[in-house]
Amino acid sequence: MKTGLLFGKKTVDLELPESVSLLEMKTAEAILDPTVAVHEALTNPIESPPLKELARGKRDACIVIPDITRPVPNQVILPPILRTLQENGIPKEKIIILIANGMHRPNLGKELESMVGSQIMDNYNIENHYCRKPAVYRKIDEIDGAPIEINRHYLDADLKILTGLIEPHFYAGYSGGRKSILPGISSFETMKFMHSYKMVDHPNLTNCLIEGNPFHEYGLRVAELAGVDFILNVVINKERNITGVFAGHYNQAHLAGCEMVQEHSLVHLDQAVDMVITSGGGYPLDATFYQISKALICARDILKEGGTIVVACECSEGLGSPEFCSVLGSVSSPHEFFERYGEPKNFVIDQWCVQNIYQALNHAGRVYIYSPGLSHDDLQKIGAYKVKNIEETVNELLSENENVVAVPDGPYVVGRVG
Hints:
Elements: E1 2-7, E2 10-15, E3 21-22, H1 34-43, H2 51-55, E4 61-66, H3 74-87, E5 95-100, H4 109-116, H5 118-123, E6 125-128, E7 137-143, E8 146-151, H6 152-156, E9 159-165, E10 168-169, E11 173-174, H7 188-194, H8 197-200, H9 214-226, E12 230-236, E13 242-248, H10 252-265, E14 266-269, E15 273-279, H11 293-300, E16 303-312, H12 322-330, H13 334-341, H14 351-363, E17 366-370, H15 376-380, E18 385-386, H16 390-398, E19 404-407, E20 414-417
Parallel strand pairs: 3-19, 4-5, 4-9, 5-6, 9-12, 14-20, 15-16, 15-19, 16-17, 17-18
Antiparallel strand pairs: 1-2, 7-8, 10-11, 12-13
Helix pairs in contact: 1-3, 11-14, 13-14
């Protein structure tokens, strides 16, 4: 049985015995004409007036888009939105496209052009959100003593639009919708609350779960406080083609998209397994090890305690941000991490993904990483093994493990035991 693990912009092909179970996304047919589908969604949205009606009489607009780490087809979904706004009285000079970087780096130059295309980049005002620049955000309220600070461009806009991609998310249940605001365009102080050790340790912060999920519930509260006039979210398949377009009310349209994702991405298992062979999800998700925490958590959730995980991830940009590398280098074991960063006063940026990595390492017996972008020292420091030849390593491990699953699409597929 041949399978290809998503790896950068290609795949790593493995020959696996029939005894290995494949966890794959259910087939989702691509929409033949996605531009028409987007226009139809804007015209006949869910629980909302059409975008053209919302635009009439508005002085300006802010359109929020995800950053480069999400494979959102901006060049398909943005033109119909921009055209609708301009045809209904909002000139392009009064439209801001705001990149929801969260705490990620800004997207500039060729990188930005790859996201939105040269036509949009050259003709519209595009701003990156900077979570640690107080001049770009404003406090609107508090939740549990934490300041709720949101980007000023968004708050001051007469028409507020969110765009994005709905896929499984290991904190929010599903990406998209309210997540464009929190964490997308929130301040560092606001995100400290949402990414605290206590929050990340909550058992209901998990893929494909929103009921009783505090990350989701706080996200909705902040969306209501900040205001959202309209969203347009899409669902894509394995080939990155659009399979669903959901527009309208910030919560109802998002929930409709979540239902589609659950139908195609959630797989039930009778029991936990001995070994998981998975991927980091391919480019852009596996550009850094920072994002591989998602694949590790997905693997952990279907793995017996003490089991084995093998992950293929390109990591063309290495480990990740300097902050992430600093947290990784500050401890040498899961126990040491939990002891130090479980204390709120020790909170630092990017500790949450390190927390997830150590959660997986603490649960698994062994974790093997196949990645040309990471060194032996990088992985040894956290207690993982660097793989030189993934086929040889997998074959050796298969002889030691009986109940094995392979997840070629990595965190885009969510396994659930029971």
